[in-house]
Amino acid sequence: MPNLFIATGIFYPEPGGPATYLYEVLPALQARGWSIKVLTYGDDNTTVYPYPVERIARRALPIRRINYALSSRPYLQWADVVYAHTIDLPLIGKKTSPRLIKIVGDQAWERCIRKGWISPTEDIDLFQRKKYHGIVAQQQRSRQRQVQAMDAVIVPSHYLKQMVHGWGVPEEQVHVVYNTLPPLVGDRLSQEEAREQLGLDEGPLLMTAARLEPWKGAQHIIAALKQVPDVRLLVAGDGPMLGRLQADTHSLGNRVQFLGRLPRATVYQYMQAVDYFVLYSGYEGLPHSLLESLRLGTPVIASEKGGNVEVVRPGSNGFLVPYVDVDALAQTIEAALATGKRDELAARAHIGTERFDFEDMIASTDDILRRFV
Fold first, then answer.
1. pTM of the entire predicted model
2. 8 FRET partner, CA 20 to 30 A, in 18, 26, 172, 222?
3. Tens of pLDDT, residues 280-336
4. What is the rounded CA–CA span in Å between residue 113 and residue 120?
5. So where are the chain's domains?
6. Element (H, E) at 326
């Protein structure tokens, strides 16, 4: 039975894609014969897992990194394969086993935006090409060195494969494994049933759901709504942009409703109630929210960025819109709400989501990991 050490910065029940991914995937890898141990940052909790999970408290930066490094040493000696899920983990010591990493975005770009080192509107694709100086260039170089040191990289989209290749990683070392859709929770509902259960009125209704960061684009959807009368918008999620977004909606009256963070079953309920799910983001690795909406039969409107183009089939399950072009977004919303268009797209919305099959993802991940045993 080969030993697999999972090194990560976040783990279930904390929210976030990497945490949920690992929680769902690791039992399936165990069933395929892997012995698994997990090291993560976080506070102790009472959750029971079918494998050991050690958490390193998030204390002051130097202390937590030192503690993580010391705790990782016995795992690194034990492991046949190391599978990391966070860049910049202090896995210090002689490399005794192959190391792989899963990349779902550009952590250097996100960190530079959050720290205010670059503009919050800085395009991620421009960030890959542009020459920077000082601390921004340092972040880029650090990210490249760490990923280049890995024996292989797993990414959830062809878009991210090209990005990682641009960091100096040979194409043959970057493997695309599409993420799976999580199991459906809650009832499958017609649009009318969902609206009745949620107490929503008739009329054109859109929804977006995301962490409210600048690059998620909720501010652009709100701006487009000002050009399209009588259309309402539901915003699920929270984040640093919430206050600004609420201020931006004053002129729209009650046409925008902020729902906060919702359980997955409730998000699915709202997805089935609306006319379109909208994700007008400046960056997506592989957009789970679009896939979830399509699987539920609700067509989508998305930016023509990142992994969105691998999911949305214009004219078949939704619309792609140039980013950033608020006028084009407003025009697309108007066209999408034309009589009969929603029903036409909804009938085909689920077609293609079978590419994101759980068993296929597990089989591909298992195969890549075993190449290094």
1. 0.88
2. 172
3. 999 999 998 999 999 999 999 999 999 999 999 999 999 999 999 999 999 999 999
4. 5
5. 3-181+357-370, 191-355
6. helix 326-336
